[in-house]
Amino acid sequence: MRGSGFWLCATALVAGLTGCARDEGLTPAEQAAAVEEGGAAAQALMGALQARLMAAMQEGGPAHAVRFCAEEALPVTDSVAGTLGEGFEIKRVSLRHRNPENAPDAAEAEALRHFESVLAEAGSLPETWVQKTSAGELRYYRSITIAPPCLTCHAGTDQLDPAVREALEETYPEDLATGYEAGDFRGLIRVTVPPSKVKS
Prior knowledge:
Elements: E1 20-21, H1 28-84, E2 89-93, H2 106-122, E3 128-132, E4 138-145, H3 151-154, H4 162-171, E5 185-193
Parallel strand pairs: 1-3
Antiparallel strand pairs: 2-5, 3-4, 4-5
Helix pairs in contact: 1-4
């Protein structure tokens, strides 16, 4: 089944383009390109997803939005990626994913652990991070947190509206994305920035 939750908590993503970089093999030019290009791409994705989600909510309420997300979240993501140019890739990832297609690969899991580690040690979540993978791929990450409206679909199952719970059971039988509270770390937007965007 294609699709994944739109994550209303994405409203927290539109501010700032600063980021933390890995030290291993990451040049200043790569850092700058990732922050500029990746930040813009992440904002474009969340703007598109938010607009579509709010329209679905207004059309039929939260249960309708759940079903809409299952059909449209990944196609919208693919569409935004297609506007960015060759070599760009966008993905939303979480260890507690709603759809298996949003499960992390090894590098994304490392990024998720980095954000969790900083949160545990510093008491605050970093907004962004730049990673150069072992394969040389340049990736920009932006964190997603749970805002109060997210709890409509991401709270504990006993707190969800029965219609929302039923829609989740139908559309996401492997759902791991409930049981959150406001302010929790939800996951990441990952943008792969092509080498052509790195200025020499």
